[in-house]
Structure prediction request, 381 residues.
Amino acid sequence: MPAHVTIPQHLLPADGRFGAGPSKVRAEQVEAVARAGAALLGTSHRQAPVKQLVGSVREGLAQFLGLPAGYEVLLGLGGATAFWDAAAFGLVERRAQHLTFGEFGAKFAQVTDAAPFLEASSVVQSLPGTRPEPRAEEGVDVYAWPQNETSTGVAAPVHRPAGTGEDALVLVDATSAAGGMAADLSATDVYYFSPQKNLGSDGGLWLGAFSPAAVERIERIGGSGRWIPDFLKLTAALENSRKDQTYNTPALATLVMLDEQLRWLNGQGGMAWAAARTKESSDLVYAWAEASAHAAPFVPRPEDRSTVITTVDFDGTVDAAAVAAVLRAHGVVDVEPYRKLGRNQLRIATFVSIEPDDVARLLRCIDHVVEQLRGTGGTGR
Ligand SMILES: *Cc1c(COP(=O)(O)O)cnc(C)c1O
Prediction:
């Protein structure tokens, strides 16, 4: 890092965590863990106190997500990445179609494509920064895409593609969307996520809202004789979730932090409030980038720009990695771009826990650092 570049204290955000996940955990969540202390931590997940906690998380999610009638909240261990394996085993009957426009959508596509008991997956691809459209296809029984492609900052609509068969399921990876973006869950059969992004918890769990059709699919495939590793059996997740338990031991602190975040979100005004807050923060970033002489939003179409993960490209006169390094030295962390994207870029999460005012401060800090690195002697005042 260029040692001479410093950011005056008064410019810095109150909280310097802008990472895309793990992401900022609010102090109230940490306090909830401390409060849970002796009463809950270190006690059996098969007894009432932890089951009540799991029940509270399931109810809090049902309220926040506006769970449609008949839908159920299930959970299991291993995060969204484990859920991809579970879904390949337990939700895809023969063939899946995936939209891939970044790292996360592509990873799920690789999972179903490599599964020896499934047909080769249909992959609809587009360049990073853009997004493709799903298209009805004969023989496809699962359509899958991320609502928010965390590696690029592209958001995709949540809807049922026109012309898909009656029994085709729509699986939406909402890992970086849930808690910070709006969605009509009735347009999905499985809306799943890990809790370490907008939900400000720790990683290691997956949670999802499942439609009656998805539950029926789980039961049918589960009873079909297909070999499924026990840990990845969605029938086991279904059975345990209905009893407010998990198949194996969960991290209790993660559940406590998640429960606290859901209470906060529902108390503030739920999904609509959360979506408005992340839009306010992301609008600040995009307006700033568009007005900047050296930066521009990476995602060309405004309607594709994520409200929870913003990506900003810099021109050749600015070394974004050097900017990120100066920020990091001042406790403002994790604004580096997704590593495999390989761009001269900053990626700034505008998750619901992040104060819009801190986003504004971060942008002033970036301007200050850029000026100093460019040697124009700006004071940053
Ligand atoms: C972070 C992320 C994942 C991976 O989540 P893990 O909990 O690490 O498995 C998957 N999909 C999206 C869209 C993500 O942002």
Residues 21, 79-81, 104, 146, 150, 173, 175-176, 194, 203 surround pyridoxal-5'-phosphate (CB under 6 Å). Residues 143 and 170 are 5 Å apart (CA to CA). DSSP finds ten helices and twelve strands in the chain. The chain has a mean pLDDT of 96.
